[in-house]
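Marked as duplicate of an earlier ticket. Keeping the data here for the record.
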Amino acid sequence: MSYDVSYNYEKERQEAIRAGERALNSLSSAFFELKSARNWGLFDLIGGGFISTLIKQSKMGKAQSFMEQARYDLRNFSRELKDVEGHIDLDINLNDFLSFADFFFDGLIADWMVQSKINHARSQVEEAIRRVEQVLERLKKDE
């Protein structure tokens, strides 16, 4: 029985691209919600009141859901990249890097602390987007 190695590589590369695009989509959605939460948080800091607090918390909840989806998608992307191992590395330590999805709503005391956490998560999501885009670009160059 013989196997067509180029076909298998192409199939695995396409699966990795699709997994990377799913991860990029969930990261982008998280980034959008974090950006919106940050804006509402700024408004809340200058006296936005109860409604702005509710909207900000809603945006944070949506962002957290997207970040949890991104964690799942990035793990899948990482697994798919192992199938094309030797060619491309995600270069993200998933255990450390994706801990940003864990800290929301953990003992939030004041609005400024929330704002700091939003900004930190936003930075991490932005970095993950950059890295996934780089890996996808390298994968797509093989086409």
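See parent ticket for discussion. The two ends are 27 Å apart (CA to CA).
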